Amino acid sequence: MVLKRVVVTGLGALTPIGNNIQEYWNGLINGVSGAATITHYDASKHKTQFACEVKNFTVEDFIDRKEARKMDRYAQYAIVTADEAVNDAGFNLDKLDKDRVGVIWGSGIGGLETFQNEVLEYSKGDGTPKFNPFFIPKMIADIAGGHISIKYGFRGPNFTTVSACASSTNAIIDAFNYIRLGHADVIVTGGSEAAVTIAGMGGFNAMHALSTRNDDPKTASRPMDKDRDGFVLGEGAGALILEEYEHAVARGAKIYCEIGGGGMSADAHHITAPHPEGFGAKNVMLNCLRDAGLNPTDVDGVNMHGTSTPLGDIAESKAILHVFGDHAYTMNLNSTKSMTGHLLGAAGAIETISSILSIKHGIVPPTINHFTDDENIDNKLNFTFNVAQKRDVKVLMSNTFGFGGHNACVLVKKLDI
């Protein structure tokens, strides 16, 4: 069977450093930090009082107020970015075969805020189970993809992937595979998350996963820095339109890049900690290269998982050296989480978008907030510290690793590479 080629024809983003694709890209290349004191609720009693929130966002600017009330924020974010991506792709929706258009979305947690608020309200009562009738359809992790399909009438494959922080990368890989196997012509994919809540922040704090640099939030996300002390929680969404190449060409679509391959693996080590030698990270990158039919020397850079945790950054750096050998020293490595924070299940979507825009513009965004080298990390590697670097980028990989040991990697490349 000859596999079909898959290209990217539309993008949408809603992030802590920009509320659309152009704003997001400007934030990336200018090294903007999205971290600030939490505004969604009073976090003064929390161990960590800051996060990377979406800013200056009014949902009624995009979604009817009555409809928006039926959605958790994570689903609202999904609708907004999917709409930007669909418009960016330039479809004539009247001529599109909607039976051949699917939605494959990713979210690690789904409607956490809805769940939290409903349970808190219940606890104030006398034990009578009184809940909002939209409680369940607002909370469930698959509902964002349902809302997208309903909005446009897309009747193709529709489901949600849940693999913690790897969720939206797994969604992109699934979308890629469904199209190249001929099951769909177009798939709206990506991911969304809105876990900056009392429960989200409190839960991650209880695990000692978050930075507690309350005196200096903007520099708290410090991937590869000696003094990193945990990740900064982020929120938002990213959407991509994946399309079969001949279908895109036939309608005269603009093409950002081609999806070259995807890889998956498991650490099989610990529920939260990565394997200290990065075995799962090594395998996922090798699997991705194998799927793409490329050699390590073909790759120009990696958007690392790079969460700013003490163990994770070391393990991933070791894995990169294992996979790429001496070629690793010629590559641009970066962690855009230094700017956006960690969007959990949406991280893979916005980081794949960053890689796609790097190919388009010939610029690699920086890893900001680097102050002190870590002797446990080979700092001869080019982590693109603090300042964006121009480069003719042809092939990039994006890593995402999730609690439970779930690893996913997607490779994007210039057309005809």
The whole-number mean of residue pLDDT values reads 97
Order of helices and strands: EHEEHHEHHHEHEHEHEHEHEHHEEEE
Quaternary state of this entry equals single chain
Q: CA-to-CA gap between the ends?
A: 22 Å
> In terms of per-residue confidence, which ranges show pLDDT below 50 for 5 or more consecutive residues?
none
Q: Report the major sheet.
A: 10 strands, mixed
Taken as a percent bin, the fraction of beta residues is 15-25%
Total count of helical runs of at least 4 residues: 13
Shape: globular
Strand line-up in the sheet with most strands: 5-4-6-7-1-8-14-13-9-10
Radius of gyration: 20 Å
Structural class: alpha/beta
Tell me the total number of β-strands.
Answer: 14
* Helix proportion range: 25-40%
Give structural notes:
It is a single chain. The chain is built from 13 helices and 14 strands. It is an alpha/beta fold and about 425 residues long. It has a ten-stranded mixed beta sheet with strand order 5-4-6-7-1-8-14-13-9-10, with helices on both faces. The model has no long low-confidence stretch (mean pLDDT about 95).
How would you summarize this macromolecular structure in one to three sentences?
By secondary structure, this protein is α/β, with parallel strands linked by helices. It is built from 13 helices and 14 strands.
